[in-house]
Amino acid sequence: MEFTALVTGADHGVGLALVETLLEQGCRVFAGRYHLQESALDELRLAHDSRLTLIPLDISSDESVKKAAANVLEQTDRLDVLINNAGILGDIEATIMEK
Length: 99
Description:
By secondary structure, the chain is of the alpha/beta class.
């Protein structure tokens, strides 16, 4: 049986590393991506096209989450694992000195 996972926040960092590891283990992976300009997921898709699906996903938007869920549901009837790596940072331009 093929193992199926969804990783949110998969564009870079820990999320990207999780996607790579799952693919190396032979898993089918849905990767929630927020930063469309980042190319690492596109490169992985070239190498693992049949097992990697990129899903546009902004977890701060209920509409985006619903669309992503519908997109996944169109392609599979189950997820074995959900790794919710994405977060909402707020003002990422603010410094620690700003309130």
